[in-house]
Each structure stands twice: as structure tokens, then as C-alpha cells.
Design goal:
Layout: H1 3-19, H2 23-30, H3 34-44, H4 79-84, E1 89-92, E2 98-101, H5 107-120
Antiparallel strand pairs: 1-2
């Protein structure tokens, strides 16, 4: 990452925080993208991109050791065990949006929510 770009975004994020405005309001006033503000705030706070690195072949590539996968093991889950842990699901989007889905959720509503979030990307 270019150090000059990092410093410029750090200053923008600081001005945004000091403004007391929402990301959308600040972005609108400064001609920036609100998502870029959120991403840079996350990135400057130590966030790491979760993209798989593209592997390329080169003349200096090293041999990769291939190991056998360990045998699978299964744990029996009974109705009594499942009833003891009624925890909600949590969906975390790449944009840092979180959605908690309670036990016994309406699947049609969840489907609509996921469709809306997907369109926002």
C-alpha cells in the first residue's frame, strides 16, 4: 500500500470522525464514496483483506508438500443437545455489516434481507 495514500486516507478519516457526520453525509460533502470511508477506517484500524492470494507460477516457485487429509470424525447431535444451544446465526458481510438471525426465523424474510444486502455490494 502506498504510504502517501495511507496518510491521505488517515487524515480524511480523522476529519470524518471530528465532523460528527455519518459516512454518507461526510462523503456527500467531500465528494468521496461512503463505502471507501468505511473500508479505509477498517483498514487503518488493522483490518486485513480476506481475499485469497492469487498464486502464480514462476521460475523461483518452491515445491509444495502435499499431505494426506486427516480422517473425518463425526459427532452425533441429538434433539436434546440441539435444544440446549438455541443461539442465533450471525452473518457478517465484507462491508462489515452484520445481521443476526434469531432462532425460528422466517426463511422468506431472511432471503429478502440477503437479496437486499447482495444488491448493495
Amino acid at each position: 500500500m502506498d504510504e502517501a495514500a495511507r496518510e491521505a486516507w488517515a487524515k480524511r478519516i480523522e476529519r470524518w470522525k471530528d465532523s460528527g457526520l455519518s459516512a454518507k453525509e461526510f462523503a456527500s460533502e467531500t465528494g468521496l464514496n461512503a463505502r471507501s470511508l468505511w473500508w479505509w477506517r477498517w483498514r487503518l484500524a488493522g483490518g486485513e483483506p480476506k481475499r485469497p492470494r492469487k498464486q502464480t507460477r514462476s521460475s523461483t516457485s518452491r515445491a509444495v508438500e502435499i499431505t494426506k487429509p486427516s480422517p473425518l470424525s463425526f459427532v452425533e447431535v441429538t434433539a436434546a443437545t440441539a435444544a440446549l444451544v438455541p443461539e442465533p446465526l450471525e452473518i457478517v458481510m465484507a462491508s462489515a455489516c452484520r445481521a443476526r438471525v434469531p432462532v425460528g426465523f422466517d426463511d422468506a424474510t431472511l432471503t429478502r434481507l440477503l437479496d437486499v444486502l447482495e444488491r448493495r455490494r
